[in-house]
């Protein structure tokens, strides 16, 4: 079982395929783990192993990964885990494909290391809009309940972390609209179709980003899914740097 440890954090990860590195950030909200890809409309582990070197991981305090809670910078802590893992594996530049909460993780990663992320695909990104905030609060509180038996964490620790990470805000939570307006990393967005993954948020990300584009419809029929799979592959291949090193 591949486990990467640094500081007081332990990250479970898997590697599949070969080619330019593609970091996969799974759906599942706070329980973002490798196995969640199996239920995604586009499962990159099944679709892109023949094209890219895939790096999948359980996020901190989900599945087989664990570490401290950092309420002062929760999204940044996840980004540091991701970057530390890629450093450990020897990848300086890479692509990112994030689904659900993975879209917000990917945007934060770009904010933290813009020169390292060559391109990103956001599959049905989350967004707080039209009164759906309580859905995310219910989600993180359920996750927090799973941590309540940890001897190193108190109920107050979990509450402080959750309210800091899921602040009463709109848009994608992890970064601001101002950041996306200034983000020149190529983004391909596959907007969602439900309250957890509002289509309006995906379209707004694509419209704000200078190098952003949206692909839809993409999940309403097998034909559209196949077209989206091909579009994602073409997009990522087009943005592989000529000198990956």
Helix content: 25-40%
DSSP strand tally: 8
* DSSP helical segment count: 8
Report the order of strands and helices.
EEEHEHEHEHHHEHEH
Terminal Cα separation, in Å? 28 Å
The helix-and-strand class reads alpha/beta
- What is the average per-residue confidence, as pLDDT, rounded to a whole number? 96
Gross morphology is: globular
The largest sheet, given as strand count, sense and whether it forms a barrel, is: 8 strands, mixed
The gyration radius over C-alpha positions equals 17 Å
Please list the strands of the largest sheet in the order they lie side by side.
1-2-4-3-5-6-7-8
Which blocks of ≥5 consecutive residues have pLDDT under 50?
Answer: none
Describe the structure.
This protein has 245 residues and is α/β, with parallel strands linked by helices. 37% of the residues lie in helices and 18% in strands. It has 8 helices and 8 strands. It has helices spanning 44-47, 74-89, 101-112, 133-146, 155-165, 177-182, 199-208, 222-238; strands at residues 3-6, 9-16, 20-25, 52-57, 94-99, 117-123, 187-190, 212-214. The chain has an 8-stranded mixed beta sheet, with helices on both faces. Helix 2 crosses helix 3 and helix 4 (133-146) packs antiparallel against helix 5.
């Amino acid at each position: 079982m591949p486990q990467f440890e640094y500081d007081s954090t332990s990250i479970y990860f898997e590697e599949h395929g070969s080619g330019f590195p593609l970091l996969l950030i799974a759906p599942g909200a706070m329980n973002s783990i490798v196995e969640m890809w199996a239920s995604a409309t586009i499962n990159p582990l099944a679709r892109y192993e023949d094209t890219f070197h895939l790096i999948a991981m359980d996020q901190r305090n989900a599945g087989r990964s664990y570490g401290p809670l950092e309420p002062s910078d929760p999204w940044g802590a996840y980004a540091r885990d991701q970057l530390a893992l890629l450093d450990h594996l020897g990848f300086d530049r890479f692509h990112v494909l994030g689904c659900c909460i993975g879209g917000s993780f990917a945007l934060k990663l770009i904010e933290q290391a813009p020169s390292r992320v060559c391109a990103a695909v956001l599959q049905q990104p989350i967004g707080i809009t039209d009164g759906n905030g309580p859905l995310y609060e219910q989600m993180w509180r359920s996750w927090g309940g799973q941590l309540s038996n940890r001897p190193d964490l108190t109920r107050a620790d979990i509450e402080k972390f959750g309210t800091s990470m899921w602040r009463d805000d709109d848009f994608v939570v992890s970064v601001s609209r101002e950041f996306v307006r200034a983000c020149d990393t190529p983004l391909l967005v596959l907007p969602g179709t439900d309250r957890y993954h509002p289509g309006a948020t995906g379209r707004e990300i694509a419209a704000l980003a200078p190098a952003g584009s949206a692909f839809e419809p993409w999940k309403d029929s097998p034909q559209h899914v196949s077209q989206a799979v091909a579009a994602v592959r073409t997009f990522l291949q087009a943005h592989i740097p000529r000198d990956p090193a």
